[in-house]
């Protein structure tokens, strides 16, 4: 049995979708365990591109089981529209292929309304959320008033819970935020319709996954977002509302932590961030703009331009430490082709000292100055490499330095968005 986790080692959009699809070939089950449709995971196979938000990136294979775990927050409207989108692209979605946890929490219309109203009220301090209702839905989960999938598919329970919630939410929306009240009947009727369509996919995910483990089947857990968007170890409050780190797997899927064998950190060869918050190696200059253009760095979920900067090893090492990464996958190394010089942040200067960790306090973080090492660039020939040895010498130096600084082996180097543009690093052991 081998279960492995794919996690973003930075601020999201590292290429988790691409790598999950690639590695899914070796797995029997692919599981999302946290986040929701704030995620935007791109998979490219031959000439087709697929943009996934809620459905695991193993869905393109006909013989894989894809699971949305209890730790995920599910917007049924978004889920059904993603099913339609995939079916339109020729991907079959059946209850054998897609399973949704009965314990997952449901994103309701008032969560989306509150996400927008709270952001507006934060003014200059807004987080820059995706506006998908993620934070307000997780708030209700922890407040213990949320509506779960098992409640959604029971009309009477849905009615009661919606009534209770909406009464309070409408007060909150109108009296605190000056927004417009939502109508019970409209939501109830809409969600009863969604429930009918969602019901065939609903099962107890923990029971299923533990059966798979007993049968020695391989499970791939697909993280969403990334290290520094983690609610505990990210750049709080500029984070998402779930545990994006390895700790989220066990609680978000209902398996023991000892059931995971490998933790793979997906790391972009540079750094990007969407939304607000600190970013020590950000390039607010021509180079940053150049990387954005070369890397098509625009959000899959919101279309926003991603902020770009140099690779920050302090961040990757936070992921190594917090998630116990056992290997790294470096993506988008091809995007940097054409730059004369490439920099890598290897530590921060903070109050006259060199530190190699990410401070909790944003005020301290603002005082941190990145310490860089500089590398010679490489050219477009990188796209022709089929093996690690065939990569340009300067790219190999860059990659070897990442291994040295993190103490973690690179298992895969990705040189393009397509499934085929993937190099497995073979080692003589
Ligand atoms: P995710 O959220 O981590 O799944 O990443 P996104 O899909 O949001 O963003 C990654 C983008 O980079 C997508 O457009 C991918 O198709 C693309 N991509 C992934 N790996 C590579 C790579 O190695 N090279 C290039 N050029 N593009 C890549
Ligand atoms: P994938 O899985 C990049 C960011 C938002 C915002 C913050 C909080 O594609 O890597 P939220 O809507 O979650 O409350 O927003 O988190 N964010 C992401 N950034 N990639 C993502 O997902 C993200 N999901 C959320 O931009 O800064
Ligand atoms: Mg993304």
Automatic annotation (TrEMBL):
Mg(2+) binds at residues 13, 40. The keyword Cytoplasm applies. GTP binds at residues 12-18, 40-42, 306, 332-334, 414-416. Pathway: Purine metabolism; AMP biosynthesis via de novo pathway; AMP from IMP: step 1/2. Gene3D superfamilies: Adenylosuccinate Synthetase, subunit A, domain 1, Adenylosuccinate Synthetase, subunit A, domain 2, Adenylosuccinate Synthetase, subunit A, domain 3. Binds 1 Mg(2+) ion per subunit. SMART domains: Adenylsucc_synt (SM00788). Keywords: Cytoplasm, GTP-binding, Ligase, Magnesium, Metal-binding, Nucleotide-binding, Purine biosynthesis. Its EC number is 6.3.4.4. It comes from the Bacteria. The keyword Nucleotide-binding applies. It is found in: Cytoplasm. SUPFAM superfamilies: P-loop containing nucleoside triphosphate hydrolases. It is an enzyme of class 6 (ligase). IMP binds at residues 13-16, 38-41, 130, 144, 225, 240, 304. Its cofactor is Mg(2+). GO terms for cellular component: cytoplasm. GO terms for biological process: 'de novo' AMP biosynthetic process; IMP metabolic process. Substrate binds at residues 300-306. NCBIfam families: PRK01117.1, PRK13783.1, purA. Homodimer. Plays an important role in the de novo pathway of purine nucleotide biosynthesis. Catalyzes the first committed step in the biosynthesis of AMP from IMP. Belongs to the adenylosuccinate synthetase family. This is Adenylosuccinate synthetase. It comes from Clostridium cadaveris.
């Amino acid at each position: 049995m081998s279960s492995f986790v794919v996690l973003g080692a930075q601020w999201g959009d590292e290429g988790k979708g691409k790598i999950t699809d690639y590695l899914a070939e070796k797995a029997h089950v692919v599981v999302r365990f946290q986040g929701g449709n704030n995620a935007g995971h791109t998979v490219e196979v031959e000439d087709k591109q697929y943009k996934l938000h809620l459905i695991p990136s193993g869905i393109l294979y006909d013989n894989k089981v894809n699971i949305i775990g209890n730790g995920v927050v599910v917007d049924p409207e978004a889920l059904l529209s993603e099913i339609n989108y995939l079916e339109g692209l020729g991907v079959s979605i059946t209850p054998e292929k897609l399973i949704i946890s009965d314990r997952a929490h449901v994103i309701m219309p008032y969560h989306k309304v509150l996400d927008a109203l709270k952001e507006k009220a934060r003014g200059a301090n807004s987080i820059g959320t995706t506006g998908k209702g993620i934070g307000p839905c997780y708030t209700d989960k922890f407040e213990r008033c949320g509506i779960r999938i098992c409640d959604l598919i029971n009309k009477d329970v849905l009615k009661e819970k919606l009534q209770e919630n909406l009464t309070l939410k409408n007060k909150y929306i109108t009296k605190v935020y000056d927004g417009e009240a939502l109508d019970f009947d409209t939501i109830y009727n809409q969600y009863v319709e969604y429930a009918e369509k969602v019901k065939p996919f609903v099962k107890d995910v923990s029971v299923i996954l533990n059966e798979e483990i007993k049968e020695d089947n391989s499970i791939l857990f697909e993280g969403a977002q990334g290290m520094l968007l983690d609610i505990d170890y990210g750049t709080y409050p500029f984070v998402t509302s779930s545990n994006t780190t390895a700790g989220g797997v066990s609680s978000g899927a209902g398996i023991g932590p000892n059931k995971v064998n490998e933790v793979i950190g997906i790391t972009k060869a540079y750094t990007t961030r969407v939304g607000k918050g600190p970013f020590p190696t950000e390039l607010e200059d021509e180079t940053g703009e150049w990387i954005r253009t070369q890397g098509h760095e625009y959000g899959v979920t919101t279309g926003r331009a991603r902020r770009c900067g140099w690779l920050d090893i302090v961040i990757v090492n936070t992921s190594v430490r917090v998630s116990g990464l056992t290997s790294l996958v470096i993506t988008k190394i091809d995007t940097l082709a054409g730059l004369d010089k490439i920099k890598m942040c290897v530590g921060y200067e903070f109050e006259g000292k060199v530190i190699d960790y990410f401070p909790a306090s944003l005020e301290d973080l603002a005082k941190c100055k990145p310490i860089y090492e500089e590398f010679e660039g490489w050219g477009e020939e990188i796209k022709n490499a089929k093996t690690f040895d065939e990569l340009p010498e300067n790219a190999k130096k860059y990659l070897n330095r990442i291994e040295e600084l993190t103490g973690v082996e690179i298992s895969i180097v990705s040189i393009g968005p397509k499934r085929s543009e993937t190099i497995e690093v073979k080692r003589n052991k």
